[in-house]
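Sample pair:
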Amino acid sequence: MDIEFNRPDGKQERGYLAMPREGEKSPAVVLIHEWWGLNDQVKRTADRLAEEGFRVFVPDLYRGQHAKIGDVAAATALMSKLDMDDAVAQTVRGAVQHLKQRGGGNTRVAILGFCMGGAVAIKAAVEVRELDAAVSFYAVKPNEIADVRNIRIPFQAHVSRVDEFTPQQQIDAFEKNLEAGGVQHDVHRYDAQHAFMNEQRPDKYDAVAAKTAWDRAVRFLETTIGGHATIGPTHPGQAPIP
């Protein structure tokens, strides 16, 4: 369902909320969309993650606009207008605060994002102190987003070994920076292309890598913020709908 929430500065934003059967006391995830925007695909991802036992909220970083998947020019135009500092400090932080308040104040909240959303997740892991964990999928040039040595929460990354946007040397440096900062982290590399989780892009999607990454991410979330690991069985056999 679509809901409104308040940012720290008092302004209102909108987003999509997917609820698990366990309700408001469940641990929560702020899910950040790709550069296409808040579309039906990312809503289905939120719904699947809710089936895993998490409250999932997708803030609409483009405020009602989105590009058709595959329309690179439109997506580029939308992303170029995004103020990343404001998105993290206000929209993401507001979403995290909203989920904690809905859960009674003691809810653990993670962030998870894909591509552009993966970059937002990295920046938020450094700057949003209310977060309890973070997962980033194939963020482009991850070392240029924030100083990841300053991450103080459990962090997981999923990256491609053949990513045309991010050479492996950059990923190597990224992992070394995480190690240098003493960050509790996992970096998983896949023999699959950038955007391998996106089944709406048949030229990129890799079903095997997508399922493996999904299962790893769900287990990471269960370990760090809770979920079906504490209230019942998870569904590791289900492939995601990214």
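The chain has one domain: 2-231.
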